[in-house]
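Changelog-adjacent note: as of this version, every example in the card shows the full chain rather than a window. The one below runs 392 residues end to end.
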Amino acid sequence: MTQDHEEGFDRRDFMIASLGAVSAAAALMTSPAMAQDAATPKTEGGTVFTGDIISGKQVISALDIETLEPGKHFFYFQGVQMPTGQHWYVSVAVTKGEKPGKRVGLISGVHGDEMSPIHTIQKVLAELDPAQMSGSVLAVFDLSRPAVEDMTRRWHNSGRGMDLIDMNRLFPGNENAPDAPVRHAGLVFNRLLRNNLDYAIDFHTAATGMDATSFHLARMDLPEVRAMAELYPIDHIFDNIAYPGILPNALIDAGIPSFTPEIGRPRIFDHEMIPLFVEGTMNVLKYHGVIAGEIGRTGKDSGVFIGDAMAPVITTHGGFVELLVELNEAVEAGQKVAIQRNTFGEVVAEYTAPRSGEVLARRTDATCEEGMIILSFLFDSTVPEGGDQIVE
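Full-length structure tokens:
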């Protein structure tokens, strides 16, 4: 399956159906020990040090924050092996406070074309002083390392030629699965995240070729998730369970409340949007008592609009698309929102909003194949069509 076809299928299903609930990979006939290095690791409590040093940082194959002294710690987590027998390493930072308290995870790099989440976490960590903290913050910068190296959404897996694998359909993973990305997901989930977190935030952006407002994907029916999500001064919250296999759902199933902030456009540092998510994340840390201080701006201040459904505009032709609406714009059902032309400039299609709502995402590439999403509108399905469903 090509990347373009898979991307279109994934996002079309998501926008149209707002999916509620990836098959688990079959276990290999080998023991977990066979997936590990033959060398005997050096251990300290539950943290496993491989004995390797990369760029001055210790390599670990398992983390137990309880074994660490208060302070700032930087590691490379040993992930799955490459075809050459070397490993993919994940950059990990732990900021542990002087006092006990809640353990919060900040995760980025599940998709490799999403740069603003990495910078957001870097800026949050720069504000943390272990001497003034209670609890800990675990930061993961490049969970899908091969995708980050290539600046692509998906992991390039050579298992059956060259598959393009979306890591955010594989969690909680399986350490003994027959393909590398599922094994990697299992290693990260079991040995890095699961036993070290009370709460988690999995940062993302729109996919390559798209732009989006400042929004969350969050399960607002869960009180602990809602409490965190509403602490961000952003534009929208999409109240939806999303796909099977996404990391926040796997964490929630493990008893760790989690949600997904979406920080605008991919492949760049969005310096206008990043501060909103830094402020919101600092609010979350204050809310859980990890750091002291007054809560800053929240969703109440930004007038966040919470919707539980999304309506896409999908192209019926190939051609050049001119969008007539901007992000955050309120639209009415039937309003013309895009024009599509062929190479001669002849109009081949005009598109209208299928439903009243607010523009959550829009395509940034001018060219478009048929069957692609060019706009997505967020709305509240509990408000009848024609009612006052746009929150000012």
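Structural remarks: DSSP finds eight helices and 23 strands in the chain.
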